[in-house]
Amino acid sequence: MEGLQLQSQTDKKGKLYVIGIGPGSVEQLTIASRDAILNSDYVIGNGTYLDQVKELLNDQEIIRSHMGKEVDRAKKAVELAEDNVVSMVSGGDANVYGMAGLVLEVAEHHELDVDIEVLPGVTAITAGASVLGAPIVNDFAVISLSDLLTPWERIEKRLRAASEADFIISLYNPKSRQRNSNFRRAIEIIQKTRDGSSPVGLVKNALRGDSQEMKVTTLGKVLDFDDWVDMRTMILITTPESRIWGKNGMEKIITPRGYQRKYDY
């Protein structure tokens, strides 16, 4: 894309919001994000995410894109924001495997003095955790299993380190049609250093209404659900200190914070 030029402070009239739209329903948007979208001249995003906030799209100019066009999308958003109010929508939180970093890198690379504000959103780990109960009230690590931009060797290193350090581990992007073995490989790495009794929660389409599904199992049995896992699934692998409470499809995961060691309740 051509036309990106340095803008002086005196000429600056636009604004670029990079918005995490959360799990995918308008009800889960922050008020600030909702207001930014409603008051934008342009709204840009992956078509899937635009569809999730379509009830907020009225008089704005809509620019639809798709997977693999992230760089073009970021360039267009930055260019338009020199003279317009623009919302770039990103699934979950824009700082968690989202568009925030790329947008700022593009503005930096082209030395553009664009007013950019990143608005946070509910990301998959917190959405999924709310469905599962209280699995992440202690230290945790978030690891994407997508090796499209990160070498698998580096992902393996992070998996081993997080497992050995006893972090609760959230796995993002576990499987796709092209990457259907990374989830199994990741679980096998974690199983080498973590007890098989550790509770595991799997949530598909977290907080997306009737399409939401969840499973509660253990690390030793989680690969029984290998065929059920897809790109819409967030996995939470807890530690042996966590426990499963409930039964008959109403199971919750509780990870103690440590109060039990100091207080009698």
From TrEMBL:
<keyword id="KW-0489">Methyltransferase</keyword>
<dbReference type="GO" id="GO:0030789">
    <property type="term" value="F:precorrin-3B C17-methyltransferase activity"/>
</dbReference>
<dbReference type="GO" id="GO:0032259">
    <property type="term" value="P:methylation"/>
</dbReference>
<dbReference type="InterPro" id="IPR051810">
    <property type="entry name" value="Precorrin_MeTrfase"/>
</dbReference>
<keyword id="KW-0169">Cobalamin biosynthesis</keyword>
<dbReference type="InterPro" id="IPR014777">
    <property type="entry name" value="4pyrrole_Mease_sub1"/>
</dbReference>
<dbReference type="InterPro" id="IPR006363">
    <property type="entry name" value="Cbl_synth_CobJ/CibH_dom"/>
</dbReference>
<keyword id="KW-0949">S-adenosyl-L-methionine</keyword>
<dbReference type="InterPro" id="IPR035996">
    <property type="entry name" value="4pyrrol_Methylase_sf"/>
</dbReference>
<dbReference type="InterPro" id="IPR014776">
    <property type="entry name" value="4pyrrole_Mease_sub2"/>
</dbReference>
<feature type="domain" description="Tetrapyrrole methylase">
    <location>
        <begin position="15"/>
        <end position="221"/>
    </location>
</feature>
<keyword id="KW-0808">Transferase</keyword>
<comment type="pathway">
    <text>Cofactor biosynthesis; adenosylcobalamin biosynthesis.</text>
</comment>
<dbReference type="InterPro" id="IPR000878">
    <property type="entry name" value="4pyrrol_Mease"/>
</dbReference>
<protein>
    <submittedName>
        <fullName>Precorrin-3 methyltransferase</fullName>
        <ecNumber>2.1.1.131</ecNumber>
    </submittedName>
</protein>
<dbReference type="Pfam" id="PF00590">
    <property type="entry name" value="TP_methylase"/>
</dbReference>
<dbReference type="GO" id="GO:0009236">
    <property type="term" value="P:cobalamin biosynthetic process"/>
</dbReference>
